[in-house]
């Protein structure tokens, strides 16, 4: 453990400038934090109730390493969902595992982190976040004997004027139909009787945009089916620009609730830590994101989930079983149970399991289609029943 800490801390020294203080006023990178290892969050028990082998993080020749792009592995959202897939598989099958948490974002930073992971002996590297698209595009050819699981992205050269996408045989890209998850949340909320909605996204990255646009479309369809009047559903829409808590986010959420907003879709990792207290104080509600966040606050009425833990687990199983789908980009959607709402823990009143199953089946069979175009503004999405107030 001490040896791995020493190596990991060396990576932080490379980025000492970033590690000297908190995020700037116009924050674009998360506060610097030292890379792992750390005690992992609890993993799901393996099938059959058998006791899992003891975890073995931080040993020489670490087989599985996860590298974060932004935030921490205990963000109770995207990173944690991915990390729990690593922990679950590694503990179940006795694999050594660890994580690296770079002190800043950037292609060179991520490439250095990947190099460190290779030095640590990684057989397979998991990288959650589309910011790894270019680093993996480079690293997959630099390290052909190491396999990469890129979550939320597909390797490409990042040059939009001369674009080239390439997924090597040692890499698999995993995408999610976030627009469908957001759609289900918006549909369920309006069907449950909420007509004053809010969407607070983190950074305006593709996944967050798809969540938000789907949320609008789900609210619109529900309002149509309920026969609501034109503009009877209102929806405030805003990107905070960060994935961590800020006092300004709490202030804005409080103002929204005081102005009548009933529920805010908190779609930006740890920004929910600023929104939960505002909801509690106002007696209002929150929709979580990425994973079931019902255990984080009694204000959470449902969560727009992606199958992060399961998809990471599945791809690790494919790798160690010799069935790694290298060279492919795989999308998890409603059709393969890759997105959804946690109905067992949802508090959506009249919108029950049968109602959810019915709309979910329409997504699966294609009778309901959700537009995934991220190139338009949220208030340009065709709506009649939903009035979108785009606040930037």
List the keywords.
392 residues, alpha/beta, Rossmann fold, 2 domains, seven-stranded mixed β-sheet, six-stranded parallel β-sheet, 10 helices, 13 strands, disordered N terminus
Give the strand tally.
13
The named CATH superfamily of the largest domain:
Response regulator
Report the helical percentage. 25-40%
Give the name of the CATH architecture of the largest domain.
3-Layer(aba) Sandwich
CATH topology of the largest domain: Rossmann fold
Biggest sheet, spatial arrangement of strands: 12-10-9-8-6-7-13
**In terms of quaternary structure, what is this?**
single chain
CATH class of the largest domain equals: Alpha Beta
What is the terminal separation in angstroms? 45 Å
The total tally of domains equals 2
Low-confidence stretches: 1-59
Total DSSP helices: 10
- Radius of gyration over alpha carbons? 21 Å
**Binned strand content:** 15-25%
Order of helices and strands: HEHEHEHEEHEHEHEHEEHEEHE
Shape: globular
* Mean pLDDT over the residues: 87
Report on the biggest sheet. 7 strands, mixed
Which structural class should the secondary elements be placed in? Answer: alpha/beta
Helix and strand arrangement:
Blueprint: H1 2-14, E1 64-67, H2 78-93, E2 97-100, H3 107-119, E3 124-128, H4 133-142, E4 147-151, E5 171-176, H5 178-191, E6 196-201, H6 206-226, E7 233-239, H7 247-258, E8 263-267, H8 272-282, E9 285-290, E10 300-306, H9 308-320, E11 328-332, E12 339-340, H10 353-365, E13 386-390
Parallel strand pairs: 1-2, 1-3, 3-4, 4-5, 5-11, 6-7, 6-8, 7-13, 8-9, 9-10
Antiparallel strand pairs: 10-12
